[in-house]
Amino acid sequence: MLWNVVRWEVMRHLRNKQFIIGLLITPVLFAVFGALPSVIQRLDRPRTAAYLVVDELQAVPWLQTALDGSPVTVEAASAPRPDLEAAVLAGDADGFFVLDRRFVETGVLEVFVEKPRPVPNALEGALNGLLQSLRMQEQQLDPQIVQYVSSRAAVISSGINAPEDQSERLLAGLIMSGVLAFLLFWLIISSGSMLLQSAVQEKRDRMAEVVLSSIGADTLMTGKIIGHFLLGLIQIGFWLLIGLSVLRFAADIPVGDFIAWPLLAPLPLLALSGDLFLAAAVVGGRAAVGGFHEA
């Protein structure tokens, strides 16, 4: 009789469209939210910008060297101002500016763009370095001193952690542990919530009284707990099958190397214990609430 209850609970939900839709949509939602940070990071990349320079100081090569590796490029231009404005309005360049003696004397540079917006930090930093270099040259300082004073710091990051392969395996192991812990938590919560919904629906439809007339309450509740636990295992197994297949064959990540397979055996027992605890809490809570209302 117990396994008839288990079978009835499992098959009833497997034929339920809501359960099937949730089973299929949940991996899609996980994939979307998992890929969302990467999409935001890709959209947040610095936008490339190109500027035309009317160079009266022969300083464009210095700027190009300073901007090497940044998303900003500069190019010398000798066209008249109307042509430069037309190039900016046509989208061929993001803006243009003039490097002349006034820039060296005042330190003020006007950048002409289609719509006023902040100048890229890379360009502003390069222009600050250029101004400093030109002013030191103007004071007839020794070129070697100028180069020494205006040279940039080279910052190199050196790791002192474990070897790369060991640290990567440790990180992958931590990630897999977190994923399995989340799945265990999800299994307990989902099976417990389905159990609660089933009990509430049967009580509302007066079905519980009919069922209890033919089987005992202990048998009914035990069958419900086991049935919904099996439904949770079906959910988790289906999602793991999809996730591991995608990681292994699409992303070429050897996920199996980062899983301690012998330690997976106690997980169903832990999940069942958590499911029983949640079921006991739900039943006790409903009994307390029901007794309060009856009083």
Keywords:
295 residues; D-Maltodextrin-Binding Protein, domain 2; disordered C terminus
Q: What does it look like?
A:
It is elongated, with a radius of gyration of 34 Å. It has a 4-stranded mixed sheet, sandwiched between helices. By secondary structure, the chain is an alpha/beta fold. It has 11 helices and 4 strands, in the order ααβαβαβαβαααααα. It folds into 2 domains: 49-150, 3-Layer(aba) Sandwich (D-Maltodextrin-Binding Protein, domain 2), CATH 3.40.190.10; 166-294, no CATH class.
Estimated helix fraction: 55-70%
Low-confidence blocks of residues: 291-295
Alpha carbon gap, first and last residue: 35 Å
**C-alpha Rg, in Å?**
34 Å
- Provide the domain count: 2
Quick one: overall form? elongated
Largest sheet: 4 strands, mixed
Order of helices and strands: HHEHEHEHEHHHHHH
Number of helices: 11
Lateral strand order in the biggest sheet:
2-1-3-4
Mean pLDDT across residues:
76
Layout: helices, strands, pairs:
Layout: H1 2-14, H2 17-43, E1 49-55, H3 60-66, E2 72-76, H4 81-89, E3 95-99, H5 101-106, E4 111-113, H6 121-138, H7 143-150, H8 164-204, H9 207-212, H10 217-250, H11 266-294
Parallel strand pairs: 1-2, 1-3
Antiparallel strand pairs: 3-4
Helix pairs in contact: 1-10, 6-7, 8-10, 8-11, 10-11
